[in-house]
Every structure is written in C-alpha cells, then in structure tokens.
Amino acid sequence: MSSITSFNESLVSHQTFVLIGIPGMQEKNSWVAFPLFVLYALTLLGNITILYAIKIDQSLHEPMYFFLCMLACSDLGLSISTMPTMLQVYWFDSGEITLDACISQMFFIHLFQWAESGILVAMAYDRFIAIRDPLRYTSLLPNSAIAKLGIAILSRAFCVCFPLPFLIKRLPFCRSNVLSHSYCLHPDTMNLACSGTKVNILYGLVIVMSTLGLDVVIILISYILILKTVLSIASHQERLKALNTCVSHICAILIFYVPMIGVSVVHRFGKHLSPIVHMLMANIYIAVPPLLNPVVYSVKTQQIRQRIYKMFSLKKTRG
C-alpha cells in the first residue's frame, strides 16, 4: 500500500508555489507594503542617480567609478528581480507564482548576487592598483581591461547559475507548495521537493565554496597587500588618505556579505527562532544592500557627493 501511495505521489507535482509575507499574520502584510514600496523607490532613485552622475561628469570616467557603475547595475537588476513578487505579496496579498516564473526569478536573483560578489573582487583589485601605483593607475586599468573584467564577471555568474533551473525543474513537488519568503531562492524551493536533492545540495555547496569562498579569500589577500603598501608610505597623512579611499568599498563588502552570512546562519541554526525573524532577515538580505550601496558611495566619496549636489542645485536654480 505504501509503495502505491508513493507511486501516486510521484505522479503529482505542483506547478505553482505560494509566497508568503509575515508568517502567521498575513492580514498585517499591508503594514509592510508602503515602507517596502518606498524602499524600492529609493533604491531605484539612488542607483540611477549614481549612474547618471558618472555618465555626465567626465572627471568621473575613471576605473573606480566604472566599477561603481557595474555595482549599481547589479543592484538595480537584483531589485527589479525581486520587486514584483514582494510588492505582490505585501501590497495585494497575492502570493501565487508558477513554477516557471519562480525558476526564472531564482535564476536572476542568484545571477545578480554572484555578479555583485565578482564586482566587489574587481573593486578590491582596483583599490590595490590605485594605492600601489597611483601615477599609472588609469594606464594599468584601461577601459578595454575594465570591459573585459565586466564580461568575465557576468559570464562567470551566468555559468554558475545556468544549471539551477534544470536542477530544480527535474524535481517533483508533491508536498507543501508554500515557500518561506516573498521571492524564490534555490535552497528554499529545493526543500519542498519530495525526491532526493543530493545533487542540488552538492552543487550548491561546491558553487558557494568555489565562488563566494574564493571571492572572500581574494578580497582578504587584496586588503593584506593594500595594508602592506600603506604601511610602507612614510607620511602619516598620506597613509590615512590612502586608507580613506577604501572605506566605501569595505562598507559595500560588509553590506553584501554580512546579511548573506546572517541568513545562512539563521536558516541553519535558528530553526527555533520566530518565523518573523526569518522573514526580516530574508528581506534585509535581499532589499537592504541595493539601497545602502549608493548611500555609502554618495556620503563617503567626495567626487560623487559633489556631482550629485551640483545636479540637484542646478535643477533648483532652473526651477
């Protein structure tokens, strides 16, 4: 009898999933809707402003700011990938999503996350070159090299994410179809499968170790070399000036990796915690980094701050 039941279950596979907002308090979703909409609006405004400021100011056409453009594009892509379902869940209280739409969203979320990790590595290399050899900085990182780096970063992210849709598509979903968040992620979707997911788990582990793990190691090595170079500078004032150019990048690293580690820890060791904690961590993990990156670079980078100030003061004058 049990074999017949399992056989029948294997023939049934959910083709839709249900995304959730505030666990157990769906009637309170509307409380989050407006703040979430404002957050997304500010995210789009901030990143588009960064891109526009760099585009119109020739003095900002340097490697550091080109990499910042890549970071802003990655943040925009991540926000646009998650915005529709998150607003749909919280604003319209409608969490249903088809399997194919869920897989597509999952692909793009992971694509932009892996790309952002690669961009942060490239920015660490950029800071090392700028501090070690400032006189030849622009010649060592010409536009052609930056373009090749950008293509390499995107290609790596695409290759890493390409198998995910196929790994998920092959799984039958005959248990619950309720996901843990208001967007689709590979681990969350995989956990609802009613067949073996060893291949998915192994692939996820290998990818995390060989990409995110490697990226973190490269960033750490870059900053060890940066500190070594800074300590060789005789002038104390010049040391502080050199280190100050890294502050924005260090903040971007923390903004990206700390929520990611936090979500992983909560998922692995925080099963006893309230579902609301999981919901908050998941939303912070996906929504806060794209919001804070343009704020950090606008506040901590004088050239960006001055350009944005000129843009808005010029509009006021014309008005």
From TrEMBL:
GO terms for biological process: cellular response to lipid. Gene3D superfamilies: Rhodopsin 7-helix transmembrane proteins. It is a multi-pass membrane protein. GO terms for molecular function: G protein-coupled receptor activity; olfactory receptor activity. The gene is LOC114595393. The chain crosses the membrane at residues 31-53, 65-87, 107-125, 146-168, 201-226, 247-270, 276-297. Residues 46-297 form the G-protein coupled receptors family 1 profile domain. Coiled coil: none annotated. One of its GO terms (cellular component) is plasma membrane. PROSITE patterns: G_PROTEIN_RECEP_F1_1, G_PROTEIN_RECEP_F1_2. Pfam families: 7tm_4. Its main location: membrane. This is Olfactory receptor. InterPro entries: GPCR_Rhodpsn, GPCR_Rhodpsn_7TM, Olfact_rcpt, OR51/52/56-like. Belongs to the G-protein coupled receptor 1 family. Keywords: Cell membrane, G-protein coupled receptor, Membrane, Olfaction, Receptor, Sensory transduction, Transducer, Transmembrane, Transmembrane helix. It is found in: Cell membrane; Membrane.
